[in-house]
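Tokens as discussed.
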């Protein structure tokens, strides 16, 4: 008997258990991030952008058809959308790039920009058309292949994405590592995805590019949370905020920790209210609705849900919030047909396992359990580790009396309860209780 191996195994189990216990006992401290809960940080960044806008708009006024000036304003508009969340700037950027593309149809820079904007709008079919046109020009094939890989993954062509990535493998390029992160995460290998993300962060720090450093840190914060390393996630969000005090994504991550891990709904709401006030996106109403549901306040839950639906359904947002609308309408018996309509549109636009899980869910809600089962077996199971999709799989197996698989996937969803949130955690627990 190898007592050394047994001892090492026991030590590993003890350390892992201790780490989990410390993570469970950890709570956020508002003193760590209080200084970032000020709109001055965002205002400073917006002011910098506006100064650049003024400079280039004056030049464009003097030369209305100058493509360089138009391109500068189009790029600044896309940046302002990312910063403020105001969808009008994304459309403004897209409109300018469309005009430039019509005048210069083979300009690869404009095709790349239109691809990126289309991805932001969740218009993946259009994105695919633009990127193939860009690739066919023969210019900047490295960037074209990276963007093509993004679209392959969004449209469920994982083998093609992997092949494209192998063709351009570059261990010294930040953007290459980001795609490796996405591929590993998609395949369910979160540990490897984090290793790639940490390597990307190291490259960003070597380059001293503050934007790349901040993006890497805020994404690592998310990934550590998904891994169950809650304190590490929190510390990484704080590092991101130290690097860029206007990083609203990291503040949102901290608010989620307050809610999902600490169950401190008061603090979570305080941060989300601040973000809602300065950042014009529908997301915060949905998050506040989830918190209200957890608190048992049905009136507030309905208020915030209605506000989210009213905003997210506006034509200006296009398909960006379709999956969330599907989930909300799924709780309303008179909206089941609408769930199916949206899910079918999602599958057409983004034939990804998560989209198929939504369509299967629509069949389940409509009482078509066998259709739902056929769809998840063919398009979802073994093809995604996304927690919401895994939860739907578990429920559909349960509805089809496949107890072993129902328990397997519901337990997997339960393991991702931090990511799904306390309301889903309770719901999953109820489903599992029915199987015991």
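Sequence:
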């Amino acid at each position: 008997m190898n007592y050394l191996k047994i001892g090492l195994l026991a030590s590993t189990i003890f350390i892992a258990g201790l780490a989990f216990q410390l993570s469970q006992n950890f709570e956020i401290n508002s003193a760590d991030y209080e200084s970032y809960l000020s709109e001055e940080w965002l205002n400073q960044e917006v002011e910098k952008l506006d100064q650049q806008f003024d400079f280039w708009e004056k030049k464009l006024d003097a030369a209305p058809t100058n493509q360089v000036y138009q391109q500068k304003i189009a790029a600044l508009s896309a940046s302002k959308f990312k910063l403020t969340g105001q969808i009008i700037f994304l459309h403004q950027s897209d409109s300018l790039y469309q005009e430039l593309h019509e005048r210069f149809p083979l300009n690869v820079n404009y095709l790349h920009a239109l691809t990126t904007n289309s991805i932001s709008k969740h218009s993946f079919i259009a994105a695919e058309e633009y990127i193939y046109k860009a690739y066919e020009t023969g210019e900047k094939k490295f960037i074209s292949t990276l963007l093509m890989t993004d679209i392959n993954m969004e449209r469920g062509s994982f083998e093609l994405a992997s092949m494209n990535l192998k063709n351009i493998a570059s261990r010294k390029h930040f953007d290459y590592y980001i795609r490796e992160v996405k591929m590993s995460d998609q395949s369910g290998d979160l540990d490897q995805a984090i290793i790639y993300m940490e390597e990307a962060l190291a490259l960003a720090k070597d380059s001293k590019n503050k934007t790349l450093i901040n993006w890497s840190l805020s994404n690592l914060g998310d990934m550590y949370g998904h891994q169950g390393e809650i304190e590490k996630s929190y510390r990484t969000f704080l590092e991101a905020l130290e690097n860029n005090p206007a990083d609203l994504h990291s503040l949102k991550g901290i608010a989620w920790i307050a809610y999902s891990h600490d169950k401190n709904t008061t603090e979570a709401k305080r941060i989300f209210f601040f973000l809602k006030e300065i950042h014009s996106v529908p997301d915060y109403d949905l998050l506040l609705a989830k918190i209200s549901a957890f608190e048992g306040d049905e009136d507030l839950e309905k208020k915030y849900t209605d506000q989210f639906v009213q905003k997210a359904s506006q034509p200006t947002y296009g398909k960006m919030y379709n999956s969330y609308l599907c989930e909300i309408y799924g709780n309303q018996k008179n909206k089941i047909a609408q769930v199916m309509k949206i899910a079918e549109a999602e599958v057409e636009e983004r034939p990804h396992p998560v989209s198929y899980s939504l369509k299967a869910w629509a069949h389940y809600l409509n009482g078509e359990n066998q259709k739902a089962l056929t769809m998840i077996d063919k398009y979802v199971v073994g093809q995604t580790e996304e927690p919401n999709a895994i939860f739907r799989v578990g429920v559909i197996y349960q509805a089809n009396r496949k107890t072993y698989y129902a328990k397997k996937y519901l337990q997997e969803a339960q393991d991702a309860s931090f990511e799904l949130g306390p309301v889903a955690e309770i719901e999953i627990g109820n489903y599992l209780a029915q199987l015991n």
